[in-house]
């Protein structure tokens, strides 16, 4: 068994590769050749929460375990196993692993659903998830203008400085003017914008909420969408607050999954990708990192189990 640290994960997992890996993995999921189990959470009276999610694909299966506390932060680890023998193969620091695979899923959805000529993106949020979401969009579309809004003027300005052609905006409405693609990566509990701010042909990646009682998109925005796509319908029914609070039972029947490789039908469609993040995505990118780390001699031996 080996340990792969955060710096090595960052070095070995570029966004473009992660998007390609997820395209292959979601295709196999649609063919019944991969598995993913919904996230489970253990909440303590102290405010600490333990989260766990699992997936299997090809020669590997694995689980990501992470702990969070609203006052003290979050810690992520990923365990990779051999599917043939059940032997534990690697323990990885998984902050970057989770960040990039979440971005990559949205990048894949953007590749399939956004207009090919999309040139402008609005980013609502200025945290680490917003950054990887934007990086993923930049990997699949030729973006000329980036508008950034978050509640903190200092943070949105600092975020915008990292990207050419990016500008901080004082309001959500100002950020959405002329946006071809909208990214929502906030901690909002209530919808961020009204439906009249969304132009025909817009694609939306909504990633900020994976809690049943929080949402970034209004019911009206969802009703205006011609297509709503999720990474996992099973998991979305549990924790995609945007859809749980915004869709009727009949409307749920029209929600599509990324594994079916959805494609935009016309230039006027409003499309939505609601991401909750699934364990299979961790396995897909974690397996690649593991193989590359072994090949390049970047994995450190780790002895957690006695020799049998």
Give the beta-strand count. Answer: 15
The main sheet comes to: 8 strands, parallel
Strand content: 25-35%
Average residue-wise pLDDT: 96
| 3D shape | globular
Assign the CATH superfamily of the largest domain: NAD(P)-binding Rossmann-like Domain
Low-confidence blocks of residues: none
In DSSP terms, counting alpha (H) and pi (I) runs of 4 or more, how many helices? Answer: 11
- H-E order: EHHEEEEEHEHEHEHEEHEHHHEEHE
- The CATH architecture of the largest domain can be named as 3-Layer(aba) Sandwich
Distance, first to last CA: 14 Å
Structural class: alpha/beta
Q: Provide the domain count.
A: 2
In the CATH hierarchy, the third-tier topology of the largest domain is known as Rossmann fold
Alpha-carbon Rg, integer: 19 Å
Strand arrangement, largest sheet?
Answer: 9-8-7-10-11-14-12-13
- Provide the helix percentage: 25-40%
Class of the largest domain, according to the CATH hierarchy? Alpha Beta
Throw out a few tags for this protein.
308 residues; alpha/beta; ornithine cyclodeaminase, domain 1; Rossmann fold; 2 domains; eight-stranded parallel β-sheet; seven-stranded mixed β-sheet
Explain the overall architecture.
This protein is of the alpha/beta class. The protein folds into 2 domains: 120 residues, ornithine cyclodeaminase, domain 1 (2-Layer Sandwich), CATH 3.30.1780; 171 residues, Rossmann fold. It is 35% helix and 26% strand. It has 11 helices and 15 strands. An 8-stranded parallel β-sheet has the order 9-8-7-10-11-14-12-13. The chain has a 7-stranded mixed β-sheet with strand order 2-3-4-5-6-1-15. Helix 3 crosses helix 4. The two termini are 14 Å apart. The model has no long low-confidence stretch (mean pLDDT 96).
């Amino acid at each position: 068994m080996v340990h792969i640290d955060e710096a090595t994960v960052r070095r070995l997992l570029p966004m473009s590769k992660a998007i390609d890996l997820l395209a292959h993995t979601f295709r196999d999921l649609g063919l019944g050749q991969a598995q993913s189990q919904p996230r489970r959470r253990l909440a303590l009276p102290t405010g600490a929460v333990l989260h766990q999610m699992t997936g299997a694909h090809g020669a590997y299966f694995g689980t990501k375990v992470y702990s969070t506390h609203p006052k003290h932060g979050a810690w992520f680890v990923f365990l990779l196993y051999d599917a043939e023998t059940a032997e534990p193969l690697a323990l990885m620091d998984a902050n970057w692993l989770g960040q990039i695979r979440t971005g990559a899923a949205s990048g894949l959805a953007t590749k399939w659903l956004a207009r090919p000529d999309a040139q402008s993106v609005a980013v609502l949020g200025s945290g680490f998830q917003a950054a990887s979401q934007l990086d993923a969009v930049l990997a699949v579309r030729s973006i000329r203008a980036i508008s950034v809004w978050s509640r903190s003027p200092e943070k949105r300005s600092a975020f915008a400085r990292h990207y050419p052609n990016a500008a901080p905006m004082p309001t959500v409405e100002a950020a959405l003017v002329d946006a071809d693609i909208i990214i929502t990566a906030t901690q909002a509990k209530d919808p961020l914008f009204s439906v009249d701010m969304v132009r025909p042909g817009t694609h939306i990646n909504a990633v900020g909420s994976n809690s049943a009682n929080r949402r970034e998109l209004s019911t009206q925005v969802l009703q205006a969408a011609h297509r709503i796509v999720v990474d996992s319908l099973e998991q979305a029914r549990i924790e995609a607050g945007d859809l749980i609070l915004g869709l009727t039972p009949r409307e749920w029947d029209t929600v599509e999954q990324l594994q079916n490789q959805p494609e935009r039908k016309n230039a006027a469609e409003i499309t939505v990708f609601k991401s909750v993040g699934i364990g299979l995505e961790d396995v897909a990118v974690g397996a690649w990192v593991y193989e590359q780390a072994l090949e390049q001699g970047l994995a450190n031996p780790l002895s957690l189990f006695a020799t049998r």
